[in-house]
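Quick one, tokens below. Sequence please?
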């Protein structure tokens, strides 16, 4: 099988592992910088050209960075038009990248979430703070990743200042209740093809509330409860993602979804659990890649 990995950096751990796993299973694997792709949008004959060469893959694995979602998903759509099987579809990637949209879809599906509020005007800050039960609360940029643009506001005054500053910068954000009982820890469930293939617990370093490994958090393997596994699988399915990293909090009212990542990093979870996640992704592609097997998955 000819597999294309859409990634800007072939040296990244996740990109390398996917290539190694694909080649180990006998596939032809090529890493393509999607920002160097040119799209020929011709009626009934679409093409993707990379450095002067027309591309033709049986399947693609998108690893689209958050700062290039617009063009990256456009390239994925072009491959979809060509009948190439995408590991994650363009519309699902777009849903997951927009925190507000993804939260709305998850809430509609009845999936547990921290109480979340959103407002456009700085005149409505008081009501926004009250929506999530007051301080402490968390302010998140809608398109941030890896803990960037996530601020814990311990007091109402701090919350009002941060929200006002973000709005003055015309930044889109959401505000969420702070789940104190999580004690600075969250769970990452790696979902592939409707199954949790690996899971870990991430603990924030002292003095930090963000548990992401990029922020100095530590990780250890963990066995999820049935409710946590079901929540992770439902969250991925709701957004239409075949491969997803679902971040959960353990709360007094059960598992709550923090975020669903369409391009989850593999390094932390593979090293913490010893699970060959890259191999599981390639195996999913093997089972499902079919010419023209592309549809808009999920809802909305």
């Amino acid at each position: 099988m000819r597999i294309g990995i859409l990634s800007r950096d072939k040296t990244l751990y996740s990109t390398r592992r996917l290539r190694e796993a694909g080649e180990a299973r006998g596939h032809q694997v090529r890493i393509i910088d999607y920002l160097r792709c040119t799209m020929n949008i011709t009626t009934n004959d679409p093409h993707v050209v990379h450095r002067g060469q027309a591309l033709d893959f049986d399947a693609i694995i998108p690893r689209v960075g958050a700062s290039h979602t617009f063009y990256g998903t456009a390239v994925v759509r072009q491959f979809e038009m060509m009948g190439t099987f995408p590991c994650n579809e363009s519309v699902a990637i777009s849903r997951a990248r927009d925190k507000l949209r993804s939260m709305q879809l998850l809430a509609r599906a009845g999936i547990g979430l921290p109480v979340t509020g959103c407002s456009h005007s700085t005149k409505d800050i008081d009501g926004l703070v009250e929506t999530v039960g007051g301080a402490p609360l968390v302010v998140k940029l809608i398109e941030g990743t890896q803990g960037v643009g996530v601020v814990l506001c311990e007091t109402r005054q701090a919350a009002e200042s941060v929200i006002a500053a973000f709005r003055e910068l015309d930044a889109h954000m959401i505000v969420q209740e702070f789940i104190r009982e999580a004690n600075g820890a969250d769970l990452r469930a790696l979902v592939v093809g409707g199954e949790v293939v690996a899971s870990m617990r991430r603990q924030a370093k002292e003095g930090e509330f963000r548990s992401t490994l990029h922020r100095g958090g530590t990780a250890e393997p963990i066995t999820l409860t049935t409710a946590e596994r079901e929540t992770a699988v439902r969250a991925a399915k709701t957004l239409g993602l075949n491969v997803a990293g679902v971040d959960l909090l353990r709360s007094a009212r059960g598992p709550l979804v923090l975020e669903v990542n369409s391009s989850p990093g593999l390094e932390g979870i593979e090293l913490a659990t010893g699970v060959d996640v890259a191999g599981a992704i390639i195996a999913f592609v093997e089972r499902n890649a079919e010419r023209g097997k592309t549809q808009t998955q999920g809802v909305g």
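Residues 22 and 282 are 6 Å apart (CA to CA). The radius of gyration is 20 Å.
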